[in-house]
Amino acid sequence: SKALQRTVTRFYQNLTGLSKQKQNGRKVGKLKWKSPTEFQSMTYSQSGFKLKNTSGRRATLWLSKIGNIPIRYHREIPDEADIKEVTIKKETTGDWFVSFGLETDDTNLPEKPDVNSLNTSNSVGLDLGILNYIHTSDGTTVDWLHLEDEYDRLRHDQRKLSRKEQGSN
User: Fold this and answer.
1) 128 and 143 in contact (C-beta within 8 Å)?
2) Residue 1's pLDDT is what?
3) Residues 43 and 87 sit within 8 Å (Cβ to Cβ)
4) In terms of CB atoms within 10 Å, which end of the chain has fewer, N or C?
5) Contact by Cβ (8 Å): 125, 77
6) Using an 8 Å Cβ cutoff, are 96 and 54 in contact?
7) Residue pLDDT, tens place only, 41-55
8) Which one-letter DSSP state was computed for residue 136?
């Protein structure tokens, strides 16, 4: 299937990347064996998927060898966009996410303005600093948030939670 081909391609790219690093003199180890249950993502490219029943923010994603999956997306897919790739990923929280690779027509995009034509009197530059959290181009600085008390409380609560029996209230 296409998803298996993409997994093999990703494995081959990782292997060639390691060998290139080794040729450049870096000390590299070997790839670790992963059982099929350890893979956290899979990618369908070009075929093997179909988006159906799109109404509002809900839809049904059909994947070959899997079937229909109800999904909810945070932003609507434009009507003129073609879905070229679908990646299904399992996060460490146990939640599953779908990511779409789209191809759209560039004619509907707004033109990028020329740098010289920008009005700098109503523009602000922001810089994230080390000593201060934010520096702006007009000289304003924002100090770091003092969260030490919150970190202490979080550490205390995490210790309490780790001592509890899993699945209990």
Assistant:
1) no
2) 66
3) yes
4) C
5) no
6) no
7) 888 888 888 988 777
8) E
